[in-house]
Amino acid sequence: MDSPLSNQVILNKIFSKLDLHTIKLVRFVSQEWSEIGASCIGRQIILDPYDVFLPKSSELVENPGTVFTFNPRLARRINMHDSYYWPARKPHNLPVDKIAAMLSLFSTHINQFTTQVEFFVQKATCQKYVTALLTRNEFPCLKSISVTVEEDVFHVIDDEYRMEIDPLPVRPSIKSITYKLDPLVNCIVANTFPFRGVFNAMLASAPNLQKVSIVDNFYPNLENCRALDSLKLVGSLITQKPLVGLHGLGGYSYIFGKDDAFEEKKFLRTILQVQKTLRHLVIGAGPEDTPFGWNPSSIPDTATDYRLPLLPNLESLEILGFGCFDKIGETLNSIILPRMKYISLVETELGSTTMDQILAKVKPDNRAVEELSLQFLRDPEAFHRFGVLWPNVKKLTVSFKGKYRLAASLNYAVIIQSLSNCWDKLDQFHVKLQLSCYEWGTFCSEAVKSLAKFSGVKSIDVQSSVIPDFYYREAAVYPVDWDFLLLTKTFNSFTFRDTEFTIPTLEGIVRLREAHQLPIQFNKCQASRQGFSWATTLTIPLDKWVDF
Fold this sequence. Notes:
Oligomer: single chain
Number of helices: 13
CATH topology of the domain at 46-243 and 253-278: Leucine-rich repeat, LRR (right-handed beta-alpha superhelix)
Strand content: 15-25%
Radius of gyration: 25 Å
């Protein structure tokens, strides 16, 4: 006799009573585990195309549903991961076309609960894998598609790709589409790229699309995106190529040049197509920062004369790498941006224009701005201008991005004090620490000790992008006295975000938080048992904020 829980009608009735946006874990209890075929509704189902479709016999099966230990009909988030950095997991004799066929067949097992599909694929496989999973008329509740295309700069793959893709099924439920080329600075940025045809097909399949994010020198036609209110366009002004013939170690030397594919006219045309509906805009000039940063002396100074057009309904604007936009300050006024309420200025290591030079061209007439976000790599010289240009700011967020030893040179106290003097009445003052240096725990300690002296700071976010192997080395060589976290009592909240911990460190922080009622929170953090015991006496809510 079949289990009632294998009946789709019964499952639908059960989950119609649940809020699938907030539920973290559901377990079914049965005498026979195989009767159910579902272990849980998790936040994410990860699909490794070189592993998940292979049973123990290492032979491909015709029905992928028999491989899973979960019921794919219950998957809310699907992560399709195919990376250059996992070579040990790739059987060389596994045909890409066969995997694509398995993905297409797998999509028939997905029912009404999937809301998000995320791909992390290679240039050589992106077109086949993405179209295989999305071609069938499934995913009736799909809201978000995200595709990161990974390209190894030293492995240029020459292959034929179809630039015109067959139409994908129309899905009115899709609200967001994201595409990112990783790394953005690459020898293939300026070339025709295979995924762009797939991206255009996805745009055509989403008539109610509200958000588009593109990190590439790619400017699609958005004329049919009549509901689009959020747009991100981040391109690259330079191209990175490997310098070969240097003792056979091309991976350690690069040459940089100007990338002519970063076209200001196309950039502007894409924005003008959604000029009337756009409410949120992110523009940027790469490359995006890496955990180890870039050597500015090896990268040519680049700049663009890009200016913003009239955006009558725009409420928030974020500029990534503002030093590359020489003339952007001339358009940050109430005539071009009459409804602007939020501005974010993010400094990177590229560009020849300083913040002081940009702000000198801004007219002090936009009094609608109520929220300001700033990111510095070094001490700026333009503090005195903020309060004059945007006098009605109520919420200020300051991000410090420290790399290598640079974090040690940041004078947090002076910066915060100078910014505090810009406004008499500041309701919310938030600080974000983005530390990529090995000794991030030590620098975090120094920053908290400095910031705790200012009563105006309401919250602190700490994010560390240190590669895990280096963090374990740091934990052994640079031990941190985490008692400095007792100072977080002076803040409303203190959050570790996207940060890697060892088990002993995490246990110590959690016990400290519980003993002293500290406002410490965790968001998308990880705790690894590498080099430590698998056992832990600490009860940690894994489904809420920590992944092991």
